[in-house]
Amino acid sequence: MLRKIFVMLLAAIICAGCGEVKEVQADVEPLDPIEEKLQSMTLEEKIGQMVMIGVYGTELNDDIIFSLNNFHFGGVIFYDRNLESVAQAKKFVNDIEYAANQKVPLFFALDEEGGRVARGRNFLEVAPSQESIGLSGNPANANYWAKHNATILKSIGVNINFAPVADVGSRDTRSFGDDAQLVSNFVEAAAQGYEAENFLYTLKHFPGIGKSKIDPHKEVSAVEDSKEILDAEDLPPFKRIINGHDNSKFMIMVGHLRYDALDPVNSASLSPAVMTGLLRNELGFSGVVITDDLEMGAIKNHTDLPSLGVKMILAGGDIALVCHNYESQQIVYNSILEAVKRGEISVERINESVRRILKMKAHL
């Protein structure tokens, strides 16, 4: 490109010397739409994209308006506390989107795994648990129920599901099974189902919490297996989707367990070794990385709240999920903003994450 411009300018100079003055226009390529959108955003707007929040109530209220307008949060996760009916939920989504008045769409998420982890079960048809789907022995059932989940979530305005669970083994019916190959086959079928409906989805909880001894909502649990065992028994479902699918069509949610073979100090959601070393560099994931809820006991009991978002970003994550407390959400946002202003996090590092988020939101 530079050579082409140089040659054109040289030609103009030569022509001018010959008495022929001609107007020469440089061949300047237009900005990529993602880059153009990124350049139009303020630092505050960019950081808002990197925090997803939970809200209270079943209709738009002053707390929600204040949060969206002052902190530019880029997504909302709904719980049963927010859902009463299809019409109410859809109006709630539309009202929040309108009140946010952002340059890009908001993510609206739900944990619609099926079985005991499903929202709006009083008015939405809940899928069977992943365990029961796995026990059917037929991956086509995972495909069917993924399409079903996409359809019911679209009906209420939700645009991303925090499912399927890609963990191998679990104590609570949330996994397709205890065998890495079986789980990989069922997660693959589910991914194809969501993509057939042009619906965004999430693999969780990287690098796999099937071996957890303690509920991460309450406290941290350490996985003591070697890297070789993790490679063989926990990572295959994640690898399969990363290698075989457009990485901009799904998120990967990182859990709060500690994996001693990878990082004996930090939970996965705050670990550079897990999020950058393993997920980004070794497995090659180029999409959006989101944490599990930062208000879970496994994480908040061991790290002061103001540093959580900062550590998550420095470790390689893109979105901090803060589900329950408005003050906590604002603390996480402000701490990231302050870290950028004092130079602890570079603006380019923020831009890296926001580019990934904007690329995913382009599918909306």
Notes on the protein architecture:
With 364 residues, the protein is α/β, with parallel strands linked by helices. The chain folds into 2 domains: 30 residues; 330 residues, TIM Barrel, CATH 3.20.20. The longest helix has 17 residues. The N terminus is likely disordered. It has 15 helices and 10 strands. The strands form 3 sheets. Strands 4-3-2-1-10 form a 5-stranded parallel beta sheet. The chain is globular, with a radius of gyration of 23 Å. Helix content is 46%, strand content 9%. α13 packs across α14.
Kindly state the number of beta strands: 10
Mean pLDDT: 90
Gross geometry: globular
- The separation of the N and C termini measures 33 Å
Beta content comes to 5-15%
